[in-house]
Amino acid sequence: MKKYLTRPMCLLVSLVVLAGAVTAAAFTGSPYETLKKAAADTLFAKSVTITLRGALYVDGVPYEGEPDLYQYLQYAEGASYRSAAPGNFTFATPAYSLYNMDAGTPDGAGEKWYSLSFHNPDYSAGPYSSGLTGSIERGDMTYRFLELALDAAVGDLRHNLAVSESGGVKTVSGTFTAAQIPELYNAALNLALASSSLYTRTVTDKYDGGRHDAPGVYTYGETTLEGKAKTVRVWEETVTEVTDTAYDGSTYTYLNYDVKLLSERREEATPDDYGAWMNQPFESGKITFVSGTAAIDSDGYIASAEGVARIGTTTIFGESKEIELRVSATFENVNSTEPRCPVEGLEELFTEEYVLSFYPGYWDSDKAALFNPWSSSALLPGGGWYYFTLYFKLLPDGTVDKSSVTTSFYDDESLVLIDYID
User: Fold this and answer.
1) Is it the case that residue 3 has pLDDT exceeding 70?
2) What is the pTM of this model?
């Protein structure tokens, strides 16, 4: 489903961002340049906290097949914190990355487990991103190219705006109807929508695509959707139990899977094959409405922005509906955000010495080279991005200690804690 939804949503987000960008045209002097500077000052700041929200509507009704958009980000030099839902997060520094896991565990379904990847600071770039703008630096060639491209894309739209000011905050707004939207935007939209029909989607009735877990002969169907066509296949899977001998002379058993194709036929696809309307490949679209509002605070930073974009779409089966995306964002604590590790005591416990004690032999004596756990050769500088991963769960008081740290995490097997080195 998400393959067909991602492209129109991304384009709508871009349209909303563009709507916010062009809302600067009513400022005295050079309004468009004023807003561009405010946006750059905010995105290239040393630190910032951003909260992004959005919702998708189809013919005016909230779309139930996709959750509302939510993203919370704290960024500063040396650390970043991201959360897409309350209680779920990713925290990253140049030395390690930390995220919480949703999977249920053998000793308590639904318990929160955490994954911690520790990176070699000498031979790994680490998980931490260089910031909101990635490798782009303000004023470099890439920045200048994007700035010129934005100028060209905005064009005369900058002249159809209004501005108000209260308490030192400038609020700029613009509304654009279908007649005002340049055809270049619709051409880009249709290019994105057409690309969705190039993707294939395979649906199987084999236990949601999982493997059969007992010896026997099984028959299952599989349907591959390719635009208006579909290929229906019938497979036969033979599962047998095999006994083998391990290197130490002991025996063990495992399941062997042999699959063969019984039949295959080509048919016309129908809308029902795709399920939800949003899953259908789009054939065409037209932007009918874009509205945006941006607020710039007294320090010259963007404080908030919101926008609405609507497009009329038609699927390859001729079904037409209007998609609307509503997005809002707030920008807070510019140059004063301080992301902190969300797990108390983690940085004090997981020192380099403690982490490496779980993997003896993978580092040489002076830590001058990192040894690949899956190879006998040492990795030279620049040889790759290597890390060690540990798992843990929190104590009742929300902290962590050595009692719950392990190198293995399984959803359906017993969790065994390994010995640690003091």
Assistant:
1) no
2) 0.73
